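Give me the fold.
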Amino acid sequence: MADTTKPARPKGWGVLAAALSSRKSASMLGFGFSCGLPFALLIGTMNAWLGDAKIDLATIGVLSWIGLASAFKFLWSPLVDRFKLPVLERIGRRKSWILLCQIVLALGFAGLALTDPAQSIGRFAIFAVFAAFGWATQDIAVDAWRIDVADETTPVELLSPIYQFGYRVASIVGGAFALFLATLMSWPAVFALMAAMFIPLLAVTLTAPDTPRAVMQDGDAEEAHDVSPRTRLLALAVVGICWAWAIVTIAWFMIAMLAPAVPGTPHPSAADFLKIYGAWIVVATVLVPLGVAALINRARRHGAANSAKLPGAADHLYRALINPLVELTGRLGWGVLVVMGFILTYQLCFNIWSSFAYPFYLNEMHYSKDEVAFASKIFGIFMTILGVSVAGVLFARIGRFATIMIGAALPILGNFIYADLADGAPGIDLVSHTLRLDALGGMLGADERMVRLLMTIAFENVSTGIAGACFVAYVSSIVSKRFAAVQYALLSSLTFLIGSLARGVAGEMFDSLGYAVVFRYTALIGLSAILFVALEWWRASAVNGQREAGDTGSAA
């Protein structure tokens, strides 16, 4: 009899040993590093450079909207899945896209290195957007590669932690190491070195295994063809127009915000933009597509089936982008509104201000780059890993939704701790002295200021580690196995939407009100997440109760 026992999942340094045991796992380690490096540089380290260049916080907030590339990446995921790149296709179905994205990222970071943000913030933003699209597209290709190459010898359960290991190492390199280098050399030199790091990663991509392109990619998913082609085309057009409008509107404002000021013309305001367009962007990207999906479900129930396909790429786009929404709304019903509220708000109070962490540490609190590098990107990463581990224990001990509720509440308290740090840390000092953490820090060579920073980051990263693990577990439980890839990409991307949009307003508020006040405001905003967790807990409990009652009735 064949041995069907799955390989044990590695832990700790065993992950690294497993990564070196085969070409697939070693390639996964390199791909994890390749995905983590642009995230660390674009979402964190770049803002430290902008802060040093005396770029105002409102502009930093708007520039952080490049993270929306990850929020909308599901829109071009069908292109990555289907389109054969000329010439590059011969090296592999997934590798061709990964290689192209690594070249784009290297060029993007090289462009940043050659641009002075203080003199040409518009050109700097263009290179940042260029790199952001390369980062988001690489994520699509790497996720697909991981699913494709997994087998019994190298299962996804092994490849996923190896990917995370590479990702975390890249976070240290692109965060702590880059900040340390910035104390020894100029920021352009740092980003030039980061761009050069993609050269050996190209070799990893070229030597990685790949899977052949399937002869038939459409599969047997014909359920999208049970409404008329005209209805499907109309649905695709409505959703496509809404998504396109949202992207163009955001891009237009970013360009206007980052363009040189015209004498006599008021500079665009992120607060005014969100006041006018913010709600409409959410309607266009979330509510309208869900409404279209609900109407299609209704048409399916009351109309005649029609198996005719749409012409050309429209058929694939419909099944790739619309059909997963149709399945989700059909399965959850009105509960999908609660689910969307949960997803949009769960990590909101952290996502709003995360892009301003480096300017806060360096410019407001006057910590040095090496202090921030150690506290945020070395000590902080270990605290995040601790938070993820705590979440696993809590899931086993107190259950899923109780843990999710804790994950929603702790970041709110974390924001109040940051507000206390901004006010001089009277509360932090009291706790530090009561628990004798100041004495422990002194024994380890940390002064009072450093102890304050370490305590703040410790609580914040443990709490966001718990919240992040809860979010992944929740979204994974909501998606359908049949549409897991698209639904997960879509739902997880939405968490960037509100946070990224709100950062523009947060930047203006930090400038006008100060850090402490805004930290408290964002903490109060986080209360919306607790409300949606409570509603979803109630909804899920009601659904499970109905299911159990049905099972009992069937057994009787």
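The chain has three domains: 13-210, 223-315, 346-547.
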